[in-house]
Amino acid sequence: MRLILITILCFFTFFPVVAKIIRVTPGTEISSIKAALNIAANGDSILVSEGVYKEQNITINKSVFLIGNGLPILDGENQYEIVTVKANNVIIEGFDFINAGHSGYNDIAALKVINSSDVLIKNNIFVNSFFGIYCQQSTRTIIYKNTLRSNAKDEINSANGIHCWKSDQLMILQNTISGHRDGIYFEFVTNSAIENNNSFNNVRYGLHFMFSNNNRYIANIFRDNGAGVAVMFSNHIIMHRNFFSENWGNAAYGILMKEISDGDVEGNSFNRNTVGIYLEGSNRIIIRRNHFDDNGWAIKMQASCNENLVTENNFTANTFDVATNGSLVLNTFKGNYWERYEGYDLNRDGKGDIPYRPVSLYSIIVERNPSTLMLFRSFMVDLMDRAERIIPGFTPEDLKDDEPKMKMIRF
Amino acid sequence: MGKIIKYVMLDILRNRIVLAYMIFLALLGFSLFNINDNPSKGLLSLMNVVLIIVPLVSIIFASIYMYNSAEFIELLVSQPLKRINLWMSFFIGLSLSLGLAFFIGCGIPVLLFAANATGIMIIGVGILLSMIFTAIALLATVVTRDKAKGIGVSILIWLYFTLIFDGIILFLLFQFMDYPLEKAMIGFSILNPVDLSRVLILLKMDISAMMGVTSAVFNDVFGSSIGMMVALFILLLWVFFPLWLSLRKFNRKDL
Amino acid sequence: MIIATNVTKKFGKLTALNDINTTCNKGQSISLIGPNGSGKTTFIKCLLGMVVPDSGFITFNKQNISHDWKYREQIGYMPQIGRYPDNMSIAQILVMMKDIRKKTSADLDEELIEAFELNKIMDKRMRTLSGGTRQKVSAALAFLFNPEVLILDEPTAGLDPLASEILKDKIRKVKKEGKLILITSHVLSDLDDIISEIMYMQDGQLVFHKTWELLKKDTGEEKLSRAIANVMKSKL
What is the reported pLDDT for C15? Predict the structure, then answer.
């Protein structure tokens, strides 16, 4: 990742050396960014000094480096889009975007990138935006170390932090996003990477994929979002080493997977979520070497899922390990560590000699009638679960781990 | 009144059953935490102890003690003492020693190994349950004169609160599955101190699952600090209501 | 001192006390006599407030005893069968009772404790005591607080002859002090020289309440047991 960054920075550095520097300072000859843009040529740098700039709809249609010095404030006065980039090879660095306009029918963003490539957005702060950063049909745009925070209350009157549509090869790195509708939103985006971001307290999803194939998100933190992370209608997504925690609520998930296939979920940590992973209509997903701890349901796998593999994961202190709504099981659970496993290992190969059935009778009852959760851990439910374990009648016959690990797996 | 409490407590503490109960709880607590390397798993096992054994021991011991003390009560009633004070002394003496036995037996291992919100909730709920089932035992003994019958009634009451009530709830939930029963569940849980206690512990222990569908309603109602207060208040009502009824009965009882 | 007016008590269908009216005064020693189940103990328990009458009322020193408890400070009660907390020793029982009744040691009458030689077995647990020894403890407790009224339910039952004599001596002594004494007993010969009045109950009714002298005159008998037998025969 760092290599790519350096390459791109080098790419910017090899621009024609004839470029000039234009300074924007309030009270001087060039006191507005718009004025500076008027006289700038491709490859010039515009240095903006400290101050508040209330310019409406700044449009950048030249390849310039727009650099803030001392965090100048760009104020959208709650009405306007602040900056729109319509050129390639643009850098926007070191600005404080505040009060971008909100709109019910227009996609107003604090910073919008349209039909451009090789744009770098770095070290900016976005406060109280509707859409924060909006990429539309852009390629190779890098969004790096920005902070976006808004105060969204509900889904209708809010918009996404980083919103990407029909784009390719984006890199979204080390940003902090909170208080938006979705932290990061991808629709028809391909070959992109989302790494080391921190997305929390967003009203809907921390990260949301729609129809976006061949992307990867790695080492992000998703905490306390209204509904966790959603990956829908997208194939070949790589999800590695992320942290999903405290995504609580009636429809909140660590990861919600809907109609996706060939995903790779590895090395993630799911802690204290209502549901760790929810799979619906998903095929050929590999869930491997993840840690599920203290979740309501570690995995909810609906009957519409096929050929998924759950292996070498740790399941500890979850209220329910696995829940499903059907009796036909076409997925494989193998070689996981289940804290609840009560079997033995006579031949000492580290694998339990009797299979573990992660679906309890009561989890099926709760699935059918959620109100019964009130009786959870009661004496009666305990008796029922034990009876079912001895004579299985309701739990799916094939949903079992034949090689449960005896000890927790260390990664 | 303080004197009678003192003598009742002395009598109970000399009785080896409460001591055995305390040691049993302590052994159980320490071994549960030692067997499970994860303290939250130990708490889970301990929760079952609190919700099943504490009510059982409290109600049975209290009713047997009351029947065995019938003559002692008779003696005291003939003394210049107020009946209310006498009865309250027995209640306080019993619930204090049962609560103390629970606190020492169960509370110390919990505080040593898992002094978190769940652990403290378990201790608090355990002490309240000791008091509630002592009060219910007092009511049972004042209503039924016959010892065997009274102890039978006590066991039935325990069975009702730990098993039968939940069975009825489960049955109702499936009978009326098509109706929104989320709010009604809160009403149901109030009707059973064991269920209410369990919900309170679950809100600390299984918070993640409790945030799902229905249970989010529970969290909305009992999860906030005001809701927690309300729930504790309801548990206290469960102490005072049977106690008040038994007091009324005892005041008019012929000895 | 004690006045019962229209006292009626029913246990289910059984009428234990039927419209009892009587007056007991200071200095009297009254023997409450009657067959088993005639309501003697129930009447005593009414006096002590242990049984609440269905109708009628009882006054103690002109105070209605219902909802009152302080008057019991002036009563010493020895129950038919005294049972105490199993795990307490005699000494602890005594300490507890003194504690409850808040009397200073100067006012205490410890004669019976000494006479029964309870001092030697003070540390024994109540559980280990024989029925007779428990009766001794009960008797000692009844007299301990120097009460104005003594209510003794079958006091000599279960006592050995020696202890029985000690107790009777004590009753005589207290009688001389001018206290009200109420005794039920079926061993009638015990009572001849102690009692001054006789209450005879049958089937919950107070058949008569008259002085011993009057009863002697009415029946022409010198011995209490014969006099009572006479009464019972004439009733039949």
Answer: 86
* A382 shares contact with chain B (CB less than 8 Å): yes
Gap between the Cα atoms of A375 and A382, Å rounded:
10
CA geometry: angle at B130 spanning B126 and B136, to 5°? Answer: 140
The 3-state DSSP class for residue A28 equals: coil
Q: For chain B, say whether A252 makes contact (Cβ under 8 Å).
A: yes
Asked if residue A24 is part of any domain, the answer here is no
Q: How far is CA C16 from CA B51, B79, C5, C20, C205, in A?
A: 46, 23, 15, 10, 8
Rounded to a whole number of angstroms, the CA Rg of chain C reads 18
Interface of C with B in 47-106 (CB under 8 A): 48-52, 69-73, 75, 77, 79, 81-88, 92, 96-97, 99-101
Domains and CATH numbers, chain C: 2-235 (3.40.50.300)
Burial B201-238 (b: 16+ CB within 10 A, else e): bbbbbbbbbbbbbbbbbbbebbbeeebbeebbeebeeb
- Chain A meets chain C (3+ C-beta pairs below 8 A): no
Q: Interface pTM (ipTM) of the complex? A: 0.78
Are B173 and A371 in contact (CB < 8 Å)? yes
Whole-number pLDDT of residue B240: 95
Give dist(CA A79, CA A103) in Å, integer.
Answer: 8
Name residue C199's beta-bridge partners. C32, C209
Max mean pLDDT range (A140-149, A244-253, C52-61): A140-149
The number of beta carbons lying within 10 Å of the beta carbon of residue A236 is: 16
Question: Does residue A105 sit at the B interface (CB-CB below 8 Å)?
Answer: no
Q: State which residue of chain B sits closest to C142, comparing Cα positions.
A: B79
Lowest mean pLDDT: which of A51-60, A189-198, B214-223, C138-147? Answer: B214-223
Q: Hey, what amino acid is at A188?
A: F
Q: Tally the residues of chain A.
A: 411
Q: Is the pLDDT of residue B248 over 70?
A: yes
Tell me if A378 and B174 make a contact (CB, 8 A cut-off).
no
Task: Kindly state whether residue A293 falls inside one of the protein's structural domains.
Answer: yes
Domain count, chain B: 1
Burial of C235 (0-12, 13-18, 19+ CB in 10 A): exposed
- H or E, element range at A135: strand A131-136
Give the mean pLDDT of chain A.
89
> How many domains, in total, are found in chain A?
1
Distances (CA, A) of C109 to A139, C91, C146, C194: 108, 15, 6, 20
Better pLDDT: A396 or B25: B25
Shortest Cα distance, chain A CAs vs residue B182, angstroms: 6
Structural domain containing residue B70: 2-251
Above 60 in pLDDT, residue B214? no
Of C115, C141, C111, the closest CA to residue C126 belongs to: C141
pLDDT at B210 (0 to 100): 66
Q: Range with the lowest mean pLDDT among A157-171, A220-234, B174-188? A: B174-188
- The shortest C-alpha distance from C186 to chain B (Å) reads 22
Nearest to C215 by CA among C226, C204, C203, C206: C226
Residue A39: partners with Cβ closer than 8 Å, 6 or more residues away: A22, A30
List, for residues B78-87, the tens digit of each pLDDT value: 888 888 888 9
DSSP code for A410: P
What residues are paired with A258 via a beta bridge?
A232, A280
The model's pLDDT over B20-48, given as tens digits with 9 standing for 90+, comes to: 999 999 999 899 888 877 777 788 888 88
Looking at residue C204, its pLDDT comes to 86
**Which phi and psi angles does B29 have, rounded to 5°?**
-60, -50
Domain of A298, CATH number, reads 2.160.20.10
Residue A33 lies in a domain: no
Residue A104, in any domain of the structure: yes
**Which of C7, C42, C100 should we substitute to test contact with B (largest number of B Cβ atoms within 10 Å)?**
C100
